[in-house]
Amino acid sequence: MVNVSCAYVKNLKKEKTMNKTTEKAFVVAKILESTSAAWFFGTYILFLQGLGIDLLSASLLNSIFMGLSSVLDPFTGNLGDRIGQKRIYLFGLLMWSLSHIVYWMSGGFWGCAVAEIIGAVGLASRSEALESWLRNHSTEEKTHKAMAQGAYYGRLATIPTAILGGIIGARWGLEWPWLISGVTGIMAMVMIGIWLKDIPEKPIDHVATSSDLQIWNIAKDAWKDPILRRTFIFTALMVACFQPFNMFWPVIFRDATGQAQWLGSMWIGIALASALGSKLAEKWVINSKGLAVIVLSIGIPMLLTPIRGSWIIMLLIPFVIHEIGRSMWLPILWSYTNRRISNHIRTSVNSLRSSAGTTGAVLGLLVSGALTKLITPTQVWGVSAVVLILVAYWVYGWNHDV
Length: 402
Known about the structure:
The protein contains 16 helices and no strands. The chain is an all-alpha fold. The chain has one domain: Up-down Bundle (Growth Hormone, Chain: A). The N terminus is likely disordered.
């Protein structure tokens, strides 16, 4: 009995140490991933316009990326459950970085399309993989905290690279931030791989048969669950509404001020607001009512932007404020959803939700791109804001929490 008790205490200490290391490794990985990806954040749509690609064509181009990612995501997530989430995550980082190098070499729409296809493979592969790996090794509370911290420090880490990317793009050419992002992304992948190598791929209780891992069966069972089904639809609607904000902000602020060089510096406000949101998400209530409040905090500020008149400050302030809520909703939804997901299929189900998001992104891109032929990009923001407020009302009415 004494020997058994000693072994039990020893295993508890080992598990505690492993969890602590796992959570720290996750945060470090997210910082490195975010830093390398931020070089072109302020210049993406301007780069496309410099190649002669208008807003509708840019939306179509991004739809290639989102559409392919949506198709691939459930299968790469399922692959993560089969061969290991760390492996599929590192492969995703590699493909994501290579797509940026292809963007650097591209000279028109079709070159960008190739880059988007490679990037879609990368996004689908890394999507939800490391988060699922973390949750399989840790508790909900620790996972939620680590995800919030990873987002918080990751956002702060993007500030210097986004600023430098904006300056480099304005002075030497908008293609150069892509090359720098690709090279630093590969470097980050190597560093993350070294950091993660000593931590187990799967938890001890991670046992599943081949039939348990059939993606079609997993998808059908997930859709039958009322809470999972609602969160899939919710994710699609949210991401659809975010696409005009993602695509149009550099164009809107460039046109409002008459210059592009400062756009990289604008990322300071965006990143600080996102970091604040991540910090708030760490202690936010994890239920449908909490989600509804967050969605309102995104939609209401953006509803003000179409009526700003000539005041640039009335465009800037609501845009920055809405970034607080945007960084909060996904960690809350993730913890809310993952209470209903088993370890052995966690990445598969999370990737199905992620796929719902990229499907919504395609819809948002196509609709918002078409609307720019009828109304201004700022007015498209107003349309998205109204939809978000309606989504918040729907979510508030959910009556079954986990």
